[in-house]
Structure formats: structure tokens, C-alpha cells
Amino acid sequence: MATPSPSTLVFSVRRREPELVVPAKPTPHEIKQLSDIDDQEGLRFQVPVIMFYKSDPSMKGKDPVKVIREALAETLVFYYPFAGRLVEGPNRKLMVDCTGEGVLFIEADANVRIEQLGHDIIQPPCPYSKELLYHVPGSEGILGCPLLLIQVTRFICGGFIFAIRLNHTMSDAYGFVQFLNTVGEFARGSTDAPSLSPVWQRELLNARHPPHITCTHHEYEELLDTKSTTIDMDEDDNNNNNMVQRSFFFGPQEIRAIRKHLPQHLRTSSSTFEVLTACLWRCRTIALQLDQEEIVRLSCVTNARGKRVLHLPSGYYGNAFVFPAALSKARLLCTNPLGYALQLVKTAKGQLTEEYMRSVADLLVIKGRPLYITKRNYIVSDTTRSGFDEINFGWGKPIYGGLAGAISLISFYVRFKSSGGEDGIVVPLCLPQEVMERFQEELKGMIQEPVEDLYDPKPAKF
């Protein structure tokens, strides 16, 4: 049977009134400061995540809304700051007022089977994201608003969609998954404390006393003295109302094709993330048709967890990353072989040291927590190992779990299985319509096999 397309599927969601879910037991009422990495301007926004779950015969008779709501209340006993509200102190310092007011929760029902959505709808960006994650009016602020918004939408087949919106100042992807895994443990029947105890200790990523900038931070340099709080792509002279989102799948075949554009020593010494990031940055810059002497940037979100950098304790769920930037003139990036971009990506990633992280925190305090540079910048965040695709509320792993789409100039790499069952990475991008068309053509030339191996020329025939 053919799967309905988004244009022919009659899809509707019936929502109940939003409610507040509070911790299942009394929790401390206290003020807890965020770290100086957490409360920078560039993290003061909401992040939507979505997970699709098929029905499971072993869970017949169990209501995912009830199960998850009760598990959420138990989880908030241990992660009680999420039930509070943010307040701002001197020098724009953010703090959580642990009031126990709770998180927003919406119960909903869809009129179709989850299988009817089809592969193209599940792949980000989901065209029904507004129906599946209703943005309650007045809830989207950073200060004084719920820190989480959750909607659980049941489907007539017994499957459901779990969608959640996070105030990014509270956690990064790894910390957020830690929280969601705890919800999953309680949903599956645990009555004990979480298997991984949450650790606050945000002071570990605070600025030094006195703060002093010791490294070069290209990701902030043009905004050091500005108070701008608007994230504007500013990618070209097009009207930004013309922005579109599309996502691109990269399986083994596509990655293999991109590697053929590299010399042998870079093929074997470069990770998939590095190769893919270099390719996307170069194709995107070519598509933008910038002045050739303009400086363009690529910022790689680089996580400090698991590295011998800051020795963060297991269970830390705050933001623990920086985004060091690579710089190039547009002309050099567009005209040089792919290896040029790849070397810049490697150099940017390699900047993460303890001193670099400390210097970022110091800069943010000294300069009033500025926004990272947005002009001619492209930010990439690899969430393929964060664990969104492993969250289990009792119905098994999701058929898709990850970010709901690109956010302005930020692309997220997400694990995904193609319609043919092939494992790979899906990357959503946000660009003006005409730029997106040029980007697709440029990318097509990089990944469409057979690609001639540029560094393995065949012997000439005489």
C-alpha cells in the first residue's frame, strides 16, 4: 500500500489543556547558579527534540501518556532544577530559582497510524512539528518560564510521539539525554534512584578569578562589544523570510564518494564528521556566492566530556562544550580542493584544551556574555553519539530520535536509517530558497557515484 504524502495525508491532532507536572516528592527550594558556559547569549534559546515510537504488543493496555507523566514526576525529584524558573542577576548572570512549579506537559491524540506518516515525514524537518509540539503561548521566554515543554501524542495504532522543548541554558545534548534516560528508567518500572546520579556543580565551568582571556576566540571576535541578542543568519542579500529547511542523508556510499575528493593520507586519517563537515561547509559557501575576499567561518561544537580536559564528574548535565571556529577567505575555500577545508576543520577541532575552555568562560564574563558571531558563520553539532535514538520508555527504541530540524545557522548531525534500511547520518540545513537550490547541485557533484577518484588517476591509453 502506498504511503500518503504530506500533501495528501489528512492529519490532525487533538490536544488537551497543558498542565504542569511537578516533582513527585518535596524538593529543596534554593537558588542554583548556572555556569559561565551555560548562560552565554548563544545558548539562550529553545531546542526542540522529537522521537517516534511504534506500538509494542508487550505494552498493550498501557497508556504512554500516563506512564511518561508519572515517570517525569519521579525524575524531577532528582532533577528538581528543571521544575524551577530562571532569573537573571548582576552582569546578566543566570540562576535557577528551584520553586518546584513544574514543567509543561500536553496530552494529545492523532487521527492516523504512525506508519501512515511515512519515511519522508519522520525525517527532519517534520512538516507536522507544530502539531506535535504545541508552543504554549507565553511559555517560550528564557526567564520566568517553564524550562521544559513536553507533548506526548498517541496514535490509533498504539504508537506515539514524544516531543520535548528544552531551554538550552540548562543542558547540552549529553546532559539532556541523561535526564531523558532517567525518565525512561522510571517509565520501565524502576523504583530506585537513577542509575546515573545527576551532578550540578556548575561552578566547575565558571570563569577564573580574576578572569583573563588567554586564547584567540574567532567565534566571538566580531561581537565582543555588541549587546545584540538577535540570531540573524545574514547569509546573503536575500530576504530571510525566504528561508527553507531541507535535510540530506549520508550513508556509506555518500561518504565514500566524498572521500574520493581527498588525497590518500587525508582519507585514512580523517573521521566521518571531519570529512562531511568540510564538504558541507565548502558546498554551502559556494552556494552563497559571497564576495571572494569575505571571511567565512565554520564553528564545530566540541564536547569536553570524556576528554582529559576538565575532568568533569560522571553525571554532570550542564553545557560542557565550546565551538572553536575555522576561518578562510571565501575564494580560498571555494577554489581549493576539499582537503583545504578539511585541514581547517581538523585545526578548529584540535583547539579544545583546558586552557581554551577556561579562556572562553573568562571571555564571556569579561564581555557581558556575548552572542557568538553569526555573520558568514556555519555551526555544526554532531549528536550522533548523544543517545537520543536510544531513549526507551518501555516501547523500545524510537524509529527516529533527535533534533526536530536545523536552527537558523546551526545544523545537527543525527543518526538515521534510510528508507532502504541503510544506517547513516541525516543533516538538516536552513538556507534561502535560491541558495538551497545551488547547494543541492553542488553537493550532488560531490556524492553522486560513480565519482572519479581525483587522486588515483588511471594510466593514459595510447
CATH architecture of the largest domain: 2-Layer Sandwich
CATH fold description of the largest domain: Chloramphenicol Acetyltransferase
Could you tell me the radius of gyration in angstroms?
23 Å
CATH class descriptor name of the largest domain? Alpha Beta
Class per helix and strand makeup: alpha+beta
Give the quaternary arrangement of the chains.
single chain
Overall description:
This protein has eleven helices and 18 strands. It is α+β, with helices and mostly antiparallel strands and 462 residues long. Strands 1, 2, 4, 7, 8, 9 and 16 form a seven-stranded mixed beta sheet that branches. The protein has a six-stranded mixed beta sheet with strand order 10-18-17-15-11-14. It has a three-stranded antiparallel beta sheet with strand order 3-6-5, with no helix packed on it. The longest helix has 17 residues, at 272-288. The chain is globular, with a radius of gyration of 23 Å. The model is unreliable at 223-239 (pLDDT under 50).
